[in-house]
Amino acid sequence: xxxxxxxxxxxxxxxxxxxxxxxxSGLGKTAGRGEKGxxxxxxxxxxxxxxxxxxxxxxRVPKRGFTNxxxxxxxxxxxxxxxxLEGDITPETLREAGLVRSGRKVKVLGDGEIAKPLxxxxxxxxxxxxxxxxxxxxRCEELQA
Length: 145
Prior knowledge:
alpha/beta, three-stranded parallel sheet, two-stranded parallel ribbon
């Protein structure tokens, strides 16, 4: 095969649709917009969720609950993930290891087992995580907010 023999796959290329260019094109006169109405006019654009004046779904459905704007969200790390790491474990080392995202508070949960003593620094620890780390001879250090 040579460079001049290359061509796109059959049916993969389409010519641009030229609307409003006479009856022979199949899209003349009304240019595929039908007859009268809001959608046939120049400059028409509908906003998302608009239902032609009918009460929109988002306003018909009853609202429940609320969002607590003071909620603290934690990035969760399990002991099984910490067992693979070496040395002092801080939120920075967890970010470098790709276990948590930057700017998130870190909470350590007790899922999994650890055998080696670890010095773990985090924002929060579950009761079981703290017990398992200290049972292995390690230390838990909570960051002060």
